[in-house]
Amino acid sequence: MSTIDRVRVKGWVVRYFPLEVLGTIAALVAAWAAYEASGSLAIAAIAGSLGESVGYYALVVVRSARGHAASARVRLLPGIARRAWATTWLTARSVAAEFGPAELVDTVLVRPALLWAASAIWGAAPVAWLVGKLAADVVFYTVAIASFETGRRIILPDGGRSSEASAAALLSEPQREGALR
Q1: Cβ contacts of residue 95 below 8 Å, gap of 6+?
Q2: How far is CA 132 from CA 13, 27, 63, in A?
Q3: Measured between alpha carbons, how far is 172 from 168 in angstroms, rounded to an integer?
């Protein structure tokens, strides 16, 4: 593995591992609570999927909003309302670009099916839901990492450039009034 590949993989781990920890905890708690309340593996699978999304995306949104709010493209905008709107728009856009395609495949089909299948094979146990969840993660991250690598420019604050470079570029480029790239 080349140095560039190792750096990329390390970047993916730093980016996604904390999200995965929160999502996993939320998925297991939600699946367990739903199964205890309903006795249904199907309801537990759906609850686990939803729980994982809540746990995972809470940190995604906070990280993205903080990064965009601190970016030169937002800090240079006049007025709090414009900066708030820009932060919200850029956050929504970057989260959708990075995770939208993966979520469509994952949440609608792959994750519930694999959570159900694992629990049907090994019973209604946290270890079964964990196996189903990890199998679904392989599919999810294949799509999410491809989206991230393809869309870095619109996902990362300032297009992945440093604040100083971005500020210089923004100041030197002619901009339409209120335009966001």
Answers
A1: 57, 60, 61, 64
A2: 21, 11, 27
A3: 6
Cα 125 to Cα 112: distance, rounded to the nearest angstrom: 15
pLDDT tens, position by position, 163-173: 444 444 443 44
Q: For 130, list phi and psi in degrees, rounded to 5.
A: -65, -45
Lookup: tokens for 31: 């699946």
Q: State both tokens at 156.
A: 């990362």
Q: Tokens 């909003």 correspond to what residue?
A: 65
Nearest to 23 by CA among 97, 107, 91, 119: 107
Task: Give dist(CA 37, CA 115) in Å, integer.
Answer: 17
* CB atoms inside a 10 Å sphere around CB 16: 19
Q: What is the pLDDT of residues 3-58, one digit of tens each?
A: 878 888 999 999 999 999 998 899 899 999 999 999 998 899 889 989 988 999 99
Query: Rounded to whole angstroms, how far apart are CA atoms 41 and 175?
Result: 54
Closest CA to 148 of 88, 92, 102, 89: 102
For position 157, what pLDDT does the model report? 86
